[in-house]
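Whiteboard transcription, Tuesday session. T.W. wrote the structure tokens on the left side:
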């Protein structure tokens, strides 16, 4: 049985398309690890928008970024990612290079606060419009916890309905012999697709 780090895999996909000066979104800040990773890629002149519904995630990430050389590359937004379309300034629409989702609950936090399928699907629809050509969306989904099974099914269905002329989808499982293992969806927006 082979185990794969979905986080490292997501980061490796993103590194190929996200460069200094680019714009990115962390749709689920949590403890800020992915946020910092994105900021490190776009530094010094790019920008990362980070969303979380929990104030504790915003505060701890604010503290983390203060200790780096690149605090000006991050805009933290205490709101649901379902608000991203109206929250991100319009001049960035169609120019976002990478959008990360890490679903479920905040590790070490309140396990009853989880991503909700409706908000996730709304945010994914918005992401398709915000993304630039050749941009990338990564989604890590965790079946097996309350709400996680349904959310994983809905994300799978959402990926299945994407236009294959505009988006390419890959699914990577964390464990090669377990079809109900956590998984990473990687969505590439193809060149010349609609904005
Ligand atoms: N990427 C994070 C990291 O590097 O630590 C881990 C994210 S954690 C698995 C999921 C996060 O999603 C939690 O912090 C939770 O508060 C947040 N969340 C839940 N629903 C949300 C929503 N509708 N919009 C934005 N964030 C949400």
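and on the right, the sequence the group agreed on:
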């Amino acid at each position: 049985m082979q185990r794969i780090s979905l986080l490292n895999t997501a980061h490796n996909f993103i590194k190929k398309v996200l460069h200094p000066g680019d714009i990115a979104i962390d749709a689920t800040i949590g403890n800020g690890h992915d946020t910092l990773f994105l900021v490190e890629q776009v530094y010094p002149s790019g920008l990362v928008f980070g969303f979380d519904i929990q104030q504790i995630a915003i505060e701890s990430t604010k503290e983390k970024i203060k200790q780096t050389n690149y605090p000006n590359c991050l805009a933290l937004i205490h709101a649901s990612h379902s608000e991203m379309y109206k929250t991100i300034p319009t001049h960035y629409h169609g120019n976002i290079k990478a959008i990360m989702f890490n679903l479920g609950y905040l590790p070490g936090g309140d396990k009853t606060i989880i991503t909700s399928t409706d908000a996730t699907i709304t945010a994914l629809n918005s992401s398709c419009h915000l993304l630039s050509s050749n941009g990338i969306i990564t989604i890590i989904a965790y079946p097996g916890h309350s709400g996680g099974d349904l959310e994983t099914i809905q994300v799978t269905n959402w990926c299945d309905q994407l236009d294959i002329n505009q988006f390419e989808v890959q699914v990577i499982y964390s464990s090669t012999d377990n079809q109900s293992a956590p998984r990473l969806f990687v969505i590439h927006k193809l060149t010349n697709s609609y904005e």
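Someone added at the bottom: The radius of gyration is 16 Å.
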